[in-house]
Amino acid sequence: MKATPNTTSEPAVVLLSGGLDSTTVLAIAMSEGFGIHGLSFRYGQRHSLEIAAARRIAQRAGVREHHVVDIDLTLFGGSALTADIPVPKDRDLSPSAASAKEIPITYVPARNTIFLSYALALAEVIGASNIFIGVNALDYSGYPDCRPEYIQAFEKMANLATRAGVEGKTKVLIRTPLISLSKAAIITLGTSIGVDYSDTTSCYDPSPTGEACGRCDACQLRLKGFSEAGLEDPIAYATAPSAAR
């Protein structure tokens, strides 16, 4: 996914983690002609390799601006991604499994609320109406802040909380183009618009040299998506991966 920076088009904020979903959303926003202001977060996550991935993706896509914001959610912990808690491996994520109905310990408390709040501030400063986020309500590991109800509530709040919204100048839209798609459908869509998934990273517990574990929830969902899409995952895994159940 390569592009020439557009300095005249309408601005939009894209939350860019360096993962599969957010990279697909970036490509969608660019295909709609927006001038992209990417926003990534170094929040103390154990899978901090995603920041380097986000930088590469933003640079190759030719985004107008890319911010990496430092916040420290390890102060609160409460998640296997921000505290000394083991990342679950080999969970049964099939729809009928009890584990698939639980909110997993990899959920970071209030993470999307925090990220969207920063995105809202940036959007107001640059005059953007559109904020893109790659949340998904199907293959999403049970996170409460990936549901449509949450996004609708945040969008309503955003239009009550900003000067532009109160003055009626700009209606903020929280854009979630992947929210009702399966992981396989996301990968198929992204591939059709030129996304290079070799740049992305999804693993919650990568090796020190960056290989994905192939066993955490994120890896399982990613592998299942590529398998169902009939495509080979181009990233490296520490062990030979198998598709999730």
- Could you tell me how far the N terminus lies from the C terminus, measured between alpha carbons in angstroms? 31 Å
Total number of helical segments? 7
Helix/strand-derived category reads alpha/beta
- Report the CATH architecture: 3-Layer(aba) Sandwich
Low-confidence stretches: none
Note the overall shape: globular
- Topology-level CATH name: Rossmann fold
Element-level helix/strand string: EHEHEHEHHEHH
- What would you call the quaternary organization? single chain
The overall pLDDT, averaged over residues, is 91
Q: At the first level of CATH, what is the class? A: Alpha Beta
- Largest sheet: spatial strand order: 3-2-1-4-5
Beta-strand fraction estimate:
5-15%
Number of domains: 1
Query: What characterizes the major β-sheet?
Result: 5 strands, parallel
Radius of gyration: 17 Å
The fourth-level CATH homologous superfamily is HUPs
The helicity comes to 25-40%
Defining key terms:
245 residues, alpha/beta, Rossmann fold, 5-stranded parallel beta sheet, 7 helices, 33% helix
Structure, described:
It is a single chain. The protein has one domain (11-229): 3-Layer(aba) Sandwich (Rossmann fold). The chain has helices at residues 20-31, 49-61, 111-126, 148-161, 163-166, 183-192, 217-229; strands at 11-15, 35-42, 65-70, 130-132, 173-175. Strands 3-2-1-4-5 form a 5-stranded parallel β-sheet, sandwiched between helices. The chain is α/β, with parallel strands linked by helices and 245 residues long.
